[in-house]
Amino acid sequence: MTRTQATVDSVLTLLREEPQHEGQLEHLAREARELPVGELVYLVETRPATEAALLFRVLPKSIALTVFEALPAHHQAELISGLRTQQVADIIGDLDPDDRASLFDELPASVAERLMHGLDADERAMTTSVLGYPRDSIGRYMSPEVLSLRPEWTVAEALAHVRTHAAEPETIYLLPVIDATRSLEGVVGLRRLLLVDPEARVGDIAHEAVHALATDDREDAARRFFSAKLLAMPIVDAENRLVGILTVDDAVAIIEEENTEDSARTSGSEPLPRAYLSTSIFGIVRSRIVWLLVLAISAILTVQVLEIFEDRLDQVVVLALFIPLLTGTGGNTGNQAATTVTRALAVDEVRVRDLPRVVWRELRVGATLGLVLGVLGFVVASLVYGLSIGTVMGLTLMSICTMAAIVGGLMPLVAKRIGADPAVFSNPFISTFCDATGLIIYFSIATAVLGL
User: Fold this and answer.
1) Beta-strand relationship, 184-189 and 212-213
2) What pLDDT digit, counting tens, does each position of 16-32 carry?
3) Which of 178, 236, 347, 375 sees the fewest Cβ atoms within 10 Å?
4) For the domain with range 3-133, which CATH number is right: 3.40.1190.20, 3.30.300.20, 1.25.60.10, 1.20.1540.10?
């Protein structure tokens, strides 16, 4: 057993005993200080609320703030209820305005209002400005604390300004250049400031800024951020006035949250509101049950199709043997296409206007896959069950693969067009649709070939 694991076990033992007197709390505090921040974050996330609050309470302020900032906003909100008022006030005051706004979203209005009144005027104003934007907009994730430069300054003046105010903003590596009305004119990197002639004008060395509107969708802005390979991105209002800056850590957090949500919905569930080990059994069931009910109801289509073609199955019983193979092939083919197109949408490789091109491409891909599988199915089925059954299998596999690939590529684009989440339209619904449609294709081909 490693030293860290032994310390973790000791902390867990103390938490379960719920230490009350000063000596026990001091022992817990000493043990907790020995743990890396990553282990502390894990413990706070995965322990019951009372134990998490107790552990957090004994941490030194600097470590507590680092741990608190690493937690999701909804978990921060749960933790606050178990902390002392002064400790909460100290932590809230040290958060960045965008992190504070995310936390306030998760708190009851009365609690958020009380905490807001505890902030100084400047922090309250910055937090209010972030809260003024829609919840899924990039304005909610920007930092309003921005170190900006004026185009008429010399590089020497700009560097002096940076040295004076470097401790205030969240980042100084990318510096927006604004005019007297705060209109964004460009950006300049700190490295470039250090390398050019001190007498050069900032406006002459600045370059065009990759920026986003504060009301832009957060995922779209974050994807654009990484596509441009930025360290920071200015955020402007509708009049092109600088209102904040998006930093790489916030962009990463957005993408991680979106990917987690997409991954959960693609597999037919909702993302968990907190860490898996600290989510109640009821919470996990609730995240999955709705989708299972929806899919169960939609799967009735498959049963109805089988009932319609029941007489064909009675005439040629061997047809029933291939149903799992055909439905599985159709679902897998559709899921592959949907996953590929959903990812392409997320990284802006495909747009809604590309729908005809995507359909044409997936038609050819599906037909090629179907040809390969169809030939294989024809050979195997013909050898075992005869030429007629082999013909049915070959034609059906080719048709189902083509249909499933088109549907799989089409649905994420349709979802994007109507403003829905492409992941929601992905694997579960495609599987169900392809099952029912594939069976109709199968029995239609069997009827024609076998003369049923």
Assistant:
1) unpaired
2) 766 555 667 777 778 88
3) 347
4) 1.25.60.10
